Amino acid sequence: MSLLIQSVLLDGIKTDVYIEGNEIRRIGKALPVDRADKVINGRRKALNAHTHAAMTLFRGFGDDMPLKEWLEQKIWPYEAKLTAEDVYWGTKLACLEMIKSGTTTFFDMYYQFRAVADAVEEMGLRALVAGVCFDHFDGTRRTRCEQENEQLFREVERYGRRIRYAVGPHAIYTVSGELLQWAHRFATEHDVPIHLHLAETEGEVQNSLKQFGLTPVRYLHKLGVLSPRLIVAHGLYMDADEIRMLADNGVAVVHNPASNMKLASGYRFPYCEMREAGVRVALGTDGCTSSNNLDMVEAMKLASLLGKVWRGNPEAIPAEAIFESATIAGAEAVGLKAGRIAEGYVADLCLVDLNMPAFTPNHHFISNLVYAANGSCVDTVICDGKILMEGKHVPGEENIMEQAARRAYRLVKNG
Hints:
With 415 residues, the chain is of the alpha/beta class. It has two domains: 96 residues, Roll (Urease, subunit C, domain 1), CATH 2.30.40; 267 residues, Metal-dependent hydrolases (TIM Barrel), CATH 3.20.20. It has 14 helices and 15 strands. It has a four-stranded mixed sheet with strand order 3-2-1-4, with no helix packed on it. Strand 6, helix 3 and strand 7 form a beta-alpha-beta unit. Helix 2 crosses helix 14. The longest helix is centred in the last third of the chain and has 18 residues. The N and C termini lie far apart (47 Å).
């Protein structure tokens, strides 16, 4: 399958983009039409790419609560009732929302690995699906978790190239040091990423000091589990020495501004300090229970404005920097040659509709995208060289929303 996108705005210049298979093969003006199986008119469109992770069935359920109570009273009790079919439809809804707002790749940490992978495979997106690890400092649970993840790693081969396995220890307060070390060894042996919530709240830091005698990053350093395979979510509470530890060990950090603000976890994310130290900073939304949508375009605006206001510096986190975090930095963090419209890169990209108020006038496309637009500006989404949405419509979207809503209402009603 080959695609030709004609006369599209790319880096301020109108050009053609030719895709063959799952790769961007050529970029230039007036590329030959006869070589393409399908031609897309790119006039009044611009090109863009995004990445993130998801969850949806409890959107709007358990709002306006502190993190600990939110997890213990609302999220974990109801998640325990989820069936594989529930997770399958919730993931399809998440995929639909991400496609509609321009995300092509996401990193998921949730229950029911197979249901998630099945849904992603069908929806056409690209995902790293983490085998979630909780042992609550219990040796029997730890052994079971290790065995389950070994099995999941073997099973992921049955899926196509868009689905990758990752190991997902939840957090240092739900996962023992022994299991964290096992995850590190397992990831090293099989060359897979590790995803971990870390330093999300002040309470987590205080408890870490009480339980381990060390702050979260220093605790991981002592365990010997800091590595380029580790991708940390949140990372709000870190000092300069801890940031240097992350940089020295190649650890990436995902900033989740909407979730951090809504749960009041914190707002002083050290974005500039991390980047200056050499830490790769990616961008995420977190799940729909804590951010309420999966719109990465909105996440860019929130991250940029939040970073400016707490520093009192309007020059902090410019649009181009946060756009890089939402695209190329996220792709590099998971070892994917994507997030950039360039020859030889994976054909994961979006066409943005410029025929709307947010892009009028269009003095600076990236500024308009970050500060004026939201995910509704996305017109067409291509992932792995295949069109997933065209003209803002995804095949079967009405049925997905109906099925997911029905299951979500039943879960809450029966809870």
